[in-house]
Amino acid sequence: MSVDFHFLNVGYGDCTIVHWPERTAGEKVKAERIMMMDLYHHEDNDEYEDVIEYYKTHFRDEDGSLKPIFRFVCSHPHQDHICGLKKLFKDSEIRILNFWDNDHSFVPADFDGHETHEDDWKTYKTLGGDNSPATVIKTERSEKPRQFWDSDGDRIIILSPSDALIKHAHETEDGTKRASDKVEIDEMSYALSIQVNSRSVILAGDGRASPAWNDILQECKDDLGSCAVLKAGHHGHDCSFHEEALKKMDPKIIVFSNSKDEDKSNGAKSDYKRVCPGAKIYKTFDGTVIVRVPFKAEEDISVEVL
Ligand SMILES: [Zn+2]
Q1: What residues does each domain of the chain span?
Q2: Sign of torsion over alpha carbons 91, 20, 126, 104
């Protein structure tokens, strides 16, 4: 029995689905859960995964009904992380029960360059708004209690954002408030560590080495050591490569969620390889990557590339 992590091949963008099975822990029954972190939905593009079709194929109950997304985590609302949100929310019949958003004042400067961006942004604002049909969770590292995510068995540790990163995203160094379209929303991305007994899978957001990973390393050192699988920060860009943090994590499996073009221009593969020579690196442009992390620590982690 394992927790399964699906890193979807979505080109330049992100979509990770985490699937916890129903299981028992002592006397307790822990519910099956599905979490989706970010979304980049392609239709009519054979090269990439159609996220909604993928979900409908893989996440149904025995009677054929669609399993709900227990938790949708929007790491940060840049276009490459929310593309297709309207389609998912309005047209897919897939329910979203909890919606994780960031507490921010960011508004994109324009909606140019992508046909569904404005609609996806509006849906994003609805899902994170006061009248959201989902339970909205805007949280950060220091906040407690964390009843939505660690008292029921999913064991998610929030590495980022912190108060300091949220402040950094909204203010320049001299304390001047940034204009709404200049808020550095990627620096306050969610970065999560998902514990599966003694091992963890770290899902990094788009935060850069400085300030985001400096902050994580300084404040969460003890939470990095159990890392077995790392989804590399910012699609594997060199700007998010942090040597010391990577050494501390020392993952055995590293996943780059990126497109081939991005890999050529920004990929930090050689840096990751140098610091973690024993690690196996997978890239979503080679296909959707499924990583299965067994609850039993003596069982090996398995990887399948679709
Ligand atoms: Zn991104």
Answers
A1: 2-305
A2: negative
With bands split at pLDDT 50, 70 and 90, how would you rate the model's confidence at 123?
Answer: very high
Rg (CA), the chain: 18
From ligand 1's centre to the CA of 179, what distance in Å?
21
The pLDDT value given to residue 145: 42
Domain 2-305 of CATH type 3.40.228.10: no
User: How far is ligand 1, taken at its centre, from the CA of residue 70, in Å?
Assistant: 23
C-alpha 78 to ligand 1 mean position (Å):
7
Mapped onto helix, strand or coil, the DSSP state of residue 133 is coil
Q: Looking at the predicted structure, is the pLDDT value of residue 152 above 70?
A: no
pLDDT digits (tens, 9 = 90+) for 17-29: 999 999 887 888 8
Question: Omega into 161 within 30° of 0, i.e. cis?
Answer: yes
Other beta carbons within 10 angstroms of residue 72's beta carbon come to 23
CA distances from 32 to 2, 60, 70 (A): 12, 12, 9
